[in-house]
Design goal:
six-stranded parallel β-sheet, alpha/beta, 20 helices, 407 residues, 8 strands
């Protein structure tokens, strides 16, 4: 991946310089046919492998945290994400968050032609009571610090882990995860046509295990006590399957009618050697996919924005359908091992958030060139979209796609 424009192909560097010069000549509003772009993008997103799609699809829609730098506001991610992260919500918090998103959307509509953030704050009266999650079953506690949620350890050594697993294995998932007022609220909300959410996404097995047991601790556990590591692995998979089944049933689905597809977020999987991952992480993915994505067309997804290319052969065995991996991996490398996966990438997140305009274009041209023959690329960040990512940078990508990213 180019660290600067000087690492790019000369033709790519030339195009990047020209586009950025044009961007600044138009005060960030480089010419884009917005109506045509979004119409073509909608077609391309339906099937990024499609033989008749007009352009490489764009997958960047920005994240809530991007509003701060864009609007020159002090970052307060805790206050902005009041629905997802907090219960102590005041009327002033709701008004502040909605106003911030509205102002951002007003700007986005002018620059990229779409209102990107959801301005509506969900009515708590129309929400199901919170269901406990996998980390609750494993006694992991969330704490807020350094601008993010962190999952704290629930066992510090092998003896504590054995005792924890004794408790976890004995827990009845249904009675543990459903709150006391669940039946009452389910009856009320069902009458309003609101179904409970399903379980189709999970912090990946390695990231989860390093959170509740520790990074070094998990590595040494797999190397020195594989039997206990397998017990931990089996407990994670068993409880995931149980959570899925309980929530399927609560939503009115049988094993035959339950919606298909499952996804993982496993940044820390890069810590494993292939042998370690095959022992610990791979069976959990396979177990969930066997239940929820047994057919080739079913959705099997993994996000791992880390240098985990050494695990690609194993992911290839799972016939992945969607991958969002770290920026050190190339489109060619991913495609070689996972030929059927839609590649969501490979723009480096900090290239975008630091507004390195020429490099943004260079990385797009590089990835489109690598994906052009076989397609299946949705151009987006190889990882998260961070605060600092600008709407003018998104418009620059749109211009590059419209001029140089058409099939």
């Amino acid at each position: 991946m180019p660290e600067s424009k000087h690492d790019a192909k000369p033709e790519h560097a030339r195009i990047a310089r020209e586009l950025v010069k044009e961007l600044h000549a138009h005060d960030g509003m480089i010419p884009v046919d917005l109506d045509r772009f979004w119409a073509d993008n909608a077609i391309a997103l339906q099937d990024p492998f499609g033989a008749q799609i007009p352009q490489v699809p764009l997958g960047i829609d920005m994240h809530d945290e991007c509003v701060f730098d864009e609007l020159g506001e002090a970052e307060d991610f805790w206050r902005l994400n009041i629905e997802r992260m907090r219960t102590d919500v005041s009327e002033s918090d709701v008004k502040w968050a909605a106003d911030l998103k509205r102002r951002y959307n007003d700007k986005a509509e002018k620059i990229v032609g779409k209102r990107l953030r959801n301005e509506r704050i969900a009515d708590p009266k129309l929400q199901y009571p919170k269901v406990k999650e996998l980390h609750d079953l494993f006694e992991g506690k969330h704490s807020w610090h350094s601008g993010s949620w962190w999952l704290e350890k629930s066992a510090n050594n092998e003896d504590e882990l054995k005792a924890l697993l004794d408790r976890v294995e004995a827990r009845d998932v249904r009675s543990f995860i459903l709150p006391p007022n669940w039946a009452e609220e389910k009856a009320r909300l069902t009458k309003l046509g609101i179904k409970p959410s399903l379980y189709r996404d999970q912090r990946g097995p390695v990231t989860f295990a390093t959170s509740v047991y520790g990074l070094e601790e998990l590595i040494f556990l797999i190397l020195e006590n594989p039997d206990l590591a397998v017990r931990l692995r089996n407990a994670i998979l068993s409880k995931m399957l149980n959570i899925g089944r309980v929530l399927d049933e609560e939503a009115g689905y049988s094993p035959q009618t339950a919606p298909r597809g499952f996804g993982f977020r496993d940044d820390n999987c890069y810590l494993m050697t292939p042998q370690m991952y095959e022992l610990f992480g791979f069976p959990i993915l396979k177990g969930m996919f066997d239940r929820y994505a047994p057919l080739p067309e079913h959705w099997r997804y993994q996000h791992s924005d880390s240098a985990m290319g050494h695990l690609l052969p194993l992911l290839g065995r799972l016939n992945m359908k969607g991958l969002n991996l770290g920026p050190t991996l190339t489109v060619t490398e991913i495609r070689h091992h996972c030929p059927n996966a839609i590649i969501y990438g490979q723009l480096a997140p900090f290239t975008f958030s630091r507004n390195e305009e020429e490099n943004i274009v260079i990385e797009f041209l590089r990835d489109f060139e690598l994906a052009r023959e076989k397609r299946g690329l949705v151009f987006t960040t190889a990882g998260s979209v961070n605060n600092g990512s600008r709407l003018t940078g998104m418009r620059l990508i749109m211009a590059a796609i419209q001029r140089y990213g058409r099939y």
